[in-house]
Design a protein that fits this description.
It is a multi-pass membrane protein. With 437 residues, the protein is α+β, with helices and mostly antiparallel strands. Helix content is 56%, strand content 17%. The strands form 2 sheets. Strands 1, 2, 3, 4, 5, 6, 7, 8, 9 and 10 form a 10-stranded mixed sheet that branches. Strand 11 and strand 12 form a beta hairpin. The relative contact order is 0.18.
């Protein structure tokens, strides 16, 4: 007998878990369909109208139980707020790197390299690359290519003063033409052959001592900050200088990547075919859009997984809070529920009344949690390690999709938290409850 009860409970839990997963994955059209069907049932059927009347009675008594009901609202708001905030971090990081590239430029790396840090391109390959088909030409007929070198340096963070990695990029003059979205917003561009730096506005906010006119020591040499640029993407986190000056300062004799402008829609296909057919160039080409999108995948997956795990743990706590609160509410309203049963309210309307009441409280908690997450975290700037082991500055991005996901989590918690108390209310012995009157 005990074994059968245990198996029955296990099956019930599995059904609830499967139902919750299906609910969380349900698109908005499915949710809308369920809401419409529920509304039609409540409005057009006798049982539904009775359930709606019972729900009104329960909602009318909420002010008398506001302290207990607030436990559900606050608990679910906490779950939704944390979940949305963590997902917003992943969405912000992903959006920043995806904005960095486009399909009109390509980046060349050594064959098999996944990032600039493990790529080496010899200097004698640069003229060969410039002669390949598919690469755009400037007004003077020169290939639009920018050999680049990346050096990770340590700079004190603005918040704590502790050292953190920053990306110090050496670029050619063509880098500005290849990335027309990057513009100087303060000061001027660096001069070639001089130890001068321009810094991204994100880096300026993230690290100390990067104001225009100041001098910093990098590679045992003094460098002068002469300008600040705005990119609106991952380059905002970098420091830029002349590639030959950087190469000399750090004794780097090779390039790490070469970024090129593409000649029209067919440019990338032509360039890739030419690289495949030239045995002297063992290089891989990707559009910069593809390259930077791939850099987000691993971290985004980790953030989403952590968000779901942490959200699930908190959701379990919120479910138990809702269960306790609703069980207490059912016990406190035993006479009221028994009276409703005695005057003709059947079990299903009572179940629906308790469920709708719990879902209403869950909805309030979900809305509250989403609003708090949006107010505090949307646009909040942070930094994390990117693929080049340097800090990437980005902003949390609380999107409507994330708020909708948080709201579905809230309603799912309310569904589970109200189900068992609702069933208990429907099974409440009428005569026993009425004796207490």
């Amino acid at each position: 007998m005990k074994k059968n009860v245990w198996i029955g409970n296990l099956i019930a839990v599995l059904c609830i878990v499967i139902g919750l997963v299906a609910w969380i994955m349900l698109p908005w059209q499915g949710v809308l369909g369920i809401v419409v069907l529920l509304a039609l049932w409540l409005a057009l059927t006798g049982t539904g109208r009775v359930a709606l009347a019972a729900t009104r009675i329960g909602i009318a008594s909420l002010p008398q139980r506001w302290g207990a009901s607030s436990v559900i609202i606050v608990g679910i708001a906490g779950v939704v707020g944390v979940l949305v905030a963590m997902l917003a971090m992943g969405a912000g990081f992903e959006a920043t790197l995806k904005q960095t590239g486009n399909d009109t430029t390509a980046i060349l790396l050594r064959g098999g390299s996944q990032a600039e840090t493990n790529s080496v391109i010899t200097r004698d390959q640069s003229p060969l690359i410039g002669s390949l088909p598919g690469i755009a030409k400037d007004a003077q007929g020169r290939a639009v290519i920018s050999p680049e070198l990346s050096q990770v340096v340590n700079l004190p963070t603005a918040s704590s003063g502790e050292d953190a990695n920053a990306q110090f990029r050496g670029v050619s003059d063509a880098a500005w033409a290849i990335r027309p979205n990057i513009r100087i917003v303060e000061g001027r561009k660096f001069n070639v052959g001089v130890r001068e730096i321009v810094v991204g506005q994100g880096a300026k906010g993230q690290y100390r001592g990067l104001d225009v006119g100041k001098t910093i020591k990098l590679g045992n040499q003094d460098w002068t900050i002469v300008g600040v640029f705005a990119a609106g993407d991952a380059f905002d986190s970098e420091l830029w200088t002349d590639i030959e000056t950087l190469s000399s300062a750090y004794d780097r004799r090779a390039y790490q990547s070469i970024t090129v402008g593409l000649d029209g829609k067919e440019g990338f296909a032509q360039l890739k075919a030419a690289l495949d057919n030239d045995p002297r160039l063992k290089l891989d080409a990707q559009t910069t859009q593809d390259y930077y999108s791939k850099q987000t995948q691993q971290l985004t997956i980790i953030i989403k997984a952590l968000s779901i795990v942490i959200g699930a743990i908190m959701a379990i706590g919120a479910v138990f809070g809702a269960l306790n609160t609703m069980y207490a509410a059912v016990a406190g309203r035993a006479r009221e529920i028994a009276t409703m049963r005695a005057i003709g309210f059947r079990g299903l309307p009572v179940v629906m009344a308790v469920m709708l009441e719990t879902m209403l409280l869950a909805l309030l908690g979900g809305v509250l949690g989403g609003l708090v997450a949006w107010a505090i975290f949307n646009g909040y700037s942070v930094a994390t390690l990117g693929s080049n082991f340097s800090q990437v500055v980005f902003q949390f991005k609380v999107t409507p999709e994330l708020l909708w996901s948080g709201l579905k989590w809230a309603l799912g918690i309310g569904l589970v938290g109200g189900l068992f108390p609702a069933l208990r209310a429907a099974r409440l012995p009428i005569t026993q409850a009425l004796r207490a009157i």
